[in-house]
Amino acid sequence: MSLGLYLHIPFCQSICSYCNFNRGLLDRELKRRYVDALEREIRGRGVPAPLAADTIFFGGGTPSLLEPDEVARLVQACRDTFVVDPRAEVTLETNPETVSPERLSAFKAAGVTRLSLGVQSLNDDELARLGRIHSADRAKAAVRTAKATGFESVSFDLMFWLPGQSLSSWMTTIEDAIALDPDHLSLYLLELYPNAPLKETMARMATAGRAVQGAAATSRGGPVVGVTSADWAQASDDDAADMYLAALERLDAAGFQQYEISNVARSGRISRHNVKYWQAGDWIGFGCGAHSTIDGVRWKNVSATSDYVDRVDRGLPTAVERQHLTREARLEEALFTGLRLSAGVDGAQMLATHGVDVWERYGAALQPYVDDGLMWVAGTRFGLTRAGMIVANEILTTFV
Q1: Domain check: are 139 and 225 in the same one?
Q2: What is the pLDDT averaged over residues 267-280?
Q3: What is the CATH number of the domain that holds 171?
Q4: Which one of 167, 341, 384, 392 is most buried, by most CB atoms within 10 A?
């Protein structure tokens, strides 16, 4: 399998209240120096026998804050340093507020073949709670513009289990998404890291709501109607599972194919780059905080943007963490990631690659999940059913 090339762009126009990615507010002078450093890091990977690559992925952050000529420079650096397939998938993550017909046409001319838009919701109230700076109408217009520009694939992300979100409002978003006719959709469950501002806001609103309810009950002998804390509450775990299953069932009917726990696509429009992660492929990451894995060796670049630029300027190594994965660790990771795919994993391939008969080692622990309809087995292949995907974390602990 050819390499995937990942380029991290850490700049954002605003910081969303749920985000825990390696990013910061846009500083145009730092961005200029960062792009220069990123190009030098890419070109510095040159080796006597150039490696083959067939995907390039600009992630972030908000990569669409780059100028089209900067994207073109970085794509060319990749092509000059690696043997990049002429039909390579080149993805640019994009936020709706950065979209215009002129910029998208210029990005396409720069070599971008696939857009991935960070929409997250098509409901204005939900977008406001997430701290997004675009509206639902702006997001829809951005998708339509992307489609009209003629990219090979247009994808966008949606999140569910949001504060104040119901099954009904989520399914309205799904219907609106289908009407936009994307090539690919990613459906992510909202996960809040411990100190996320959104998590703190939700807790504060819940406390304020209980206080107001209690005061009202004391003064008037009954509850207050319309307390805003309800707008910040998450639905139950069972409701979140219903949201997931209902969305996928509707997307099935609309002609999408689920190929990974959180991803669906039209035929031939899967994310070729992301599949490398799930199929234990190799990739090289460039930029601050970027991870790389080649032949069982993994490394991570320094996280701070200014530190990264300084290291490149001074000719110092950018990687600050490096590890050699053991054979056992590579097997466990192949199972963890492979079972995210609807196609599951091939036990025969696991045996050939890792020297382990997975079913012989883990079969006794996995059989109850098969019996309960949470896993399927077909010849040497096995995987998670859709019901099993809901409890994937529980099932995957089998391999720890």
Answers
A1: no
A2: 97
A3: 3.20.20.70
A4: 384
- Residue 226 φ/ψ region, left for φ over 0, alpha for ψ in the -120 to 50 degree band, beta for the rest: left
Count up the domains in the chain and report the number. 3
* Amino acid type, 369: Y
Shared domain for 139 and 204, answered yes or no, is no
DSSP string, 105-122: HHHHHTT--EEEEEEE-S
109 and 210 co-located in one domain: no
Measure the CA–CA gap between 175 and 159, rounded to whole angstroms.
14
CA gap 1, 54 in Å, rounded: 9
Q: Which domain holds residue 165?
A: 3-190+234-278
Q: What are the phi and psi torsion angles at 104 (to 5°)? A: -65, -40
Q: Looking at residue 365, which CATH number applies to its domain?
A: 1.10.10.920
pLDDT tens-digit series, residues 293-320: 999 999 999 999 999 999 999 999 999 9
What is the C-alpha separation between 12 and 235, in angstroms, rounded?
Answer: 30
How much is the pLDDT for 202?
Answer: 53
280 conformational bin, left if phi > 0, alpha if psi -120 to 50, beta if neither: left
Q: Is residue 321 part of a domain?
A: no
Q: Tell me, yes or no, whether 111 and 210 share the same domain.
A: no
Average pLDDT of the segment spanning 57-63: 94
pLDDT at 383 over 80: yes
Q: What is the DSSP letter of 232?
A: G
85 belongs to a structural domain: yes
Residues 163 and 219 both lie in one domain = no
Q: For a pLDDT cut of 70, what percent of the chain falls above it? A: 86
Residues recorded for the chain: 400
Does residue 223 share a domain with residue 250? no
Q: Is the dihedral of CA 335, 338, 340, 344 positive or negative?
A: negative
Statement: residue 224 has pLDDT above 70: no
Q: Reply yes or no on whether the pLDDT at 225 is more than 60.
A: no
